[in-house]
Amino acid sequence: MPFKTRAVVALSPEKVVLREVTVPDPAPGEVVVRAEYSSISTGTERWVITGQFHAPGAKPMPHPMVPGYQKAGVIEALGAEVTGLRVGQRVFATTSRMADDEVLPGWGGHIEHSILPQREVIPLPEGLDPVKASALVLTQVGYNGGFRPPVKPGMSALVIGDGLVGQWLAQALRHRGARVVLAGRRADRLAIAAKWSADVTTNVRETPLEEVAKREAPAGFDIVADSVGTRASLEQVIPLAHHESHLVLNGYYREGENLLDIQLLHGREITTHAPAGWTRDRLIATLDLVAKDAMHVRELMTHIMPVEEASEAYDLVLRKPSEFLGICLKWQ
């Protein structure tokens, strides 16, 4: 029988609350996961809730919705035909199916009891801090960007954007041997980046990127990577790349920000990589790096808040983005 569970629900573009919703029993091949921690994908969820995440010309996701797509938790039940998993096992999980006619899943991640296919459930290594796995989809976005271009030890890389994706992208590139410069606009985030994510950090409010490029890569960067997601940021970093270099598009380019003069790339013969979304194989590869402390997650979580304070957490996301880096909700 369908049952009630708690979920974070966006009632409108301005209001997010914690309330009960209805989820179904697991179908064959599905798993029930009780959340311990779920991390907010701060950029994507802000765009989803405010109606800015959609294909050009398409309609936004409707309200009310349950946002999010990443959490760590414990298996509470297994549907028929599920193999290789057990009740009580700690896992990473993504989305959820729902039985609520009123509330729709805006992927449905921030929910206490998720009903989802086995393919979207990944066992966690024994003893791994669940907070480190709670943002695995977004960590994998940075991993994906950092593993797309070819990297040789000592190559120079410029990452623009001091948010979560920019920091995990920088960590992935540095893990592969690149010397990484991370550029941003917030001193507190750059201080975290200097400790965990990049070899060099620079505040573009204080020092123009062109000056940084002359000092750090006078012949041009081997890799330039954008996690900001604006045309202006791309037009700023592309000229700092040398001939036959690589560009990584690791942002989400909303309608109005998704058009670029191709000649900027053609003139320098720049190879462009545009990673997006997630795959199970990439999630597992990212989890392996997290478990080895080659990619850092908890260190980027400036706010670990009880889920009862979900409204306050989303007030930060929607109205005060300068006051946090990562936000993780604690369900227990």
Would you mind describing this structure in some detail?
With 332 residues, the chain is α/β, with parallel strands linked by helices. It has helices spanning 42-49, 130-133, 136-147, 164-175, 187-196, 209-216, 231-237, 263-266, 280-291, 310-319, and strands spanning 3-10, 16-23, 30-39, 65-66, 71-78, 90-93, 104-105, 113-117, 121-123, 156-160, 179-184, 200-203, 221-226, 241-249, 271-273, 301-306, 326-330. The chain folds into 2 domains: 3-135 and 297-330, Medium-chain alcohol dehydrogenases, catalytic domain (Quinone Oxidoreductase, Chain A, domain 1, Alpha-Beta Complex); 140-273, Rossmann fold (3-Layer(aba) Sandwich), CATH 3.40.50.720. Helix 8 links the parallel strand 14 and strand 15. The chain is built from 10 helices and 17 strands.
